[in-house]
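Q: Got a minute? One more chain.
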Amino acid sequence: MRKKILITGGGGFAPGNIISKADKSWEIFTLDREFPGKLPEGVSLREMDLTDGKALEKALSDHSPEVIVHTAAVSDIDVCEHNRELAKKVNVEVTARLVEYCARTNTKLIYFSTDSVFDGKKGMYTEEDKPVPLNFYAETKVYSEELIKKGLTNWVIIRPSLIVGLPVSGTGNSFLRKTLDAVAEGKEVAFPKEEIRTPLDVITLSLCVWELAGTNLTGYFHLAGNDRTSRYEMALRIADKFNFSRNLVVPKQPDATGGRAPRPVDASLNNAKAKRTLATPMRSLESGFDLIIENERKKGKDI
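A: Always. Here it is, folded:
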């Protein structure tokens, strides 16, 4: 009998890729407002507003999942900063309802947090480092992490680093897709030199999620690539790999208007635990690019 898994926000960039990497041992349900493009074979969608508590409870009761992967969130840092009620409603209250359900049913919860929970003063953060959020988005994630740790025993909290990859359909929140579309039109793309990350390809991320869903592993996992780099240097490497001019990559200057929420400068993550614990290998940025290209070619797509 196939195991039941529920993925929130399945129409998004990362969860869409996660769904695409499922094997046939899983019966997949997703909850989202909509799903761009064609729904993958064998995947059931319930279109709904996750903040509707009664509708969410009914969906959970109807599907009775053995695992929930909670990816849905308001993830735009500046939107969260300036619309805190919305951020709290989506990022915290929905998580709280899922925690209550999982506690009642002993359902495993895999929660997507963020590398932004750290203040960026030292970099290469481990799972044991204490979060120090600099913006409201990160605060909602830290608060949700605490709800999960206090309310459940069967949980995984994933802190992904910057996710690199292409969406299954549409553009989604894929900066790589947006970058490639822009340079195809001869437009410049701007990336900050100051922000340091450990980017991970979305395919490796997806395989890690399925491994965590199918095993008894619990706790925090920093899912990050092997390369620590600035977002600007990463963009130059994208130019080299995907064959467009480095001249189209320009440094992004800090926002002088004061409307941009603070970000951690060095939010790089130490992936030693993931390397030590998971069978899925963590990859270099170059190896991740190769995996992305190979994946698109298997689908008969041009990048």
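A: Residues 84-105 form the longest helix (22 residues).
Q: Perfect, thanks.
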